[in-house]
Write a structure and sequence with these properties.
Blueprint (H helix, E strand, L loop, with lengths): L3 H21 L6 E6 L6 H13 L11 E3 L1 H11 L3 H9 L4 H11 L8 H18 L2 E4 L3 H5 L5 E7 L2 H12 L3 H23 L10 E4 L5 H14 L5
Parallel strand pairs: 1-3, 1-4, 2-3, 4-5
């Protein structure tokens, strides 16, 4: 159960991000966030959408490049905090054991000060907000929808599917047993849920997503076609 302190931190992050966005942007540039349950894929879909958006003109008749943002979030958050990217990646989703983190730092990165989980996650929130403010990006994962749900001219997408189907996809992709795939899938689902919880300051709410697609029943082409149609309808592209 979330603590009052954690709710307070999350609300402060949201207040700061909202204030910064309102004061710096007279015109909202479109962007998309893309969330998915583990095993639903998404890499190829976002790459294809990014490519198509970059080839189309916007509402002003200009052809503008769209960028797919994934590992860039980790790299920029690490640079802001002043620690290796491996540390930010490790601490983003997982519940960190203080002894493990201290030992890891002492052994591998002794010249760095240990950041708190709040420090790491709030740096990630600021980086994601920056990318959203710049616009014309597809932000993949890392609580993007939770952080930017109050921004205008945005589109928040999520992929889901039954866990039995997702476990089979993971087992085939990672070349592991069904049992190991089930453990891995549940673990990563839990980590991603906890991250959204952190940024939302309350139990994760699926209504933050504009559209949720079932990866088991819809093909990648059908999902891509639908997202592009919505992007056109919202005026992201003409």
């Amino acid at each position: 159960m979330k603590t009052i302190f954690s709710d307070y931190i999350s609300s402060k992050v949201q207040d700061t991000l909202q204030s910064d966005f309102d004061s710096k942007n007279a015109k909202y540039v479109p962007f998309i966030t893309f969330s998915r349950e583990y095993g639903c894929g998404g890499d190829h879909i976002t790459q294809k959408i990014c490519s198509v958006l970059s080839s189309c003109s916007d509402s002003d008749g200009k052809v503008c490049e769209w960028k797919r943002i994934n590992h860039e979030v980790i790299a920029e958050a690490a640079a802001e905090i002043g620690v290796p990217a491996e540390i930010v990646k490790e601490m983003t989703y997982q519940k960190i054991d203080d002894y493990f983190v201290s030992s890891f730092f002492n052994f591998s990165f002794s010249k760095y000060s240990k950041p708190s989980v709040d420090t790491v996650r709030n740096a990630i929130a600021r980086v994601i907000a920056k990318f959203a403010q710049e616009g014309r990006v597809i932000i993949l994962g890392r609580g993007g929808a939770s952080i930017t749900r109050h921004y205008e001219n945005s589109l928040h997408i999520r992929l889901h599917a039954p866990i039995e189907w997702r476990v089979k996809q993971v087992a085939e992709r990672e070349k592991i047993s069904i049992e190991k795939a089930k453990v891995l899938t549940k673990k990563i689902d839990s980590e991603r849920y906890a991250l959204r919880n952190y940024f939302e300051g309350a139990a994760s709410d699926k209504t933050i997503f504009d559209v949720i697609y079932n990866s088991m029943t819809l093909s990648e082409d059908e999902i891509i076609e639908s997202i592009l149609a919505i992007a056109r309808k919202k005026g992201f592209i003409s």
